[in-house]
Amino acid sequence: MEWFSFIAADEHLGIETQYIYRVVDDVKITPVPLTPSCYMGLLYYRGELFDVVHLGNLLRQEKAKRKDGEWIILLKWSGKKLGFFPDRVRGLVWVEDQAGSQRIHIEEKETIRLITPDLIWNKLLEFSYGYSKIPENIQPGI
Predict the structure, then answer these.
(1) Under DSSP, is residue 54 helix (H, G, I), strand (E, B) or coil?
(2) Could you tell me if 123 and 61 are in contact, meaning their C-beta atoms sit under 8 angstroms apart?
(3) From 35, 40, 127, 133, which residue has the greatest number of CB atoms within 10 Å?
């Protein structure tokens, strides 16, 4: 199985290549107000709209700063679209069947933690901006 390897939040991470749509750079991201600090904005790429986050900052929960020339990894899965900035791109890694293991060892003293796009998506959804439910004193439709 092939994995895309990168570094974010000082950790070696990998995502199955089946989720990778494109790896792009030099694209315009439109900022969105009132979003978490790790949320970089929206990217319109080849007729599709992607939310873009800085993954290292999302995992560390720090304020994101974009540098020129950074790669953006675009993911597509289960009808969702998400782009992220890793701290550094490593490349492709071939991994034999890991039988459900969450970590793989590729070189001496180097371990890659395998993640899924849903893990990133759910981490982003942990931020609560605005109401998570309708306040009791507000009646829908009134």
Answers:
(1) strand
(2) no
(3) 40
Instruction: Note the pLDDT tens digit of each residue in 77-136.
Output: 999 999 999 988 888 888 776 555 666 655 556 788 889 999 999 988 887 664 444 445
| pLDDT above 70 as % of the chain | 73
10 Å Cβ neighbour count for 87?
18
Residue 113 CA, chain-centre distance (Å), reads: 14
What's the distance, Cα to Cα, between the start and end of the chain in Å? 54
Amino acid at 106: I
Separation CA 89–CA 64 (nearest Å): 17
Helix or strand or coil: residue 50? strand
Domains and CATH numbers, the chain: 2-125 (2.40.50.180)
Query: What CA dihedral angle connects 8, 14, 17 and 20, to 10 degrees?
Result: -20
- Token pair, residue 67, equals 């540098």
- Looking at this protein, which amino acid is placed at residue 138? I
Helix (H, G, I), strand (E, B) or coil at 122: helix
Helices (H), 1-142: 55-60, 117-125
**79: its two tokens:** 């009808």
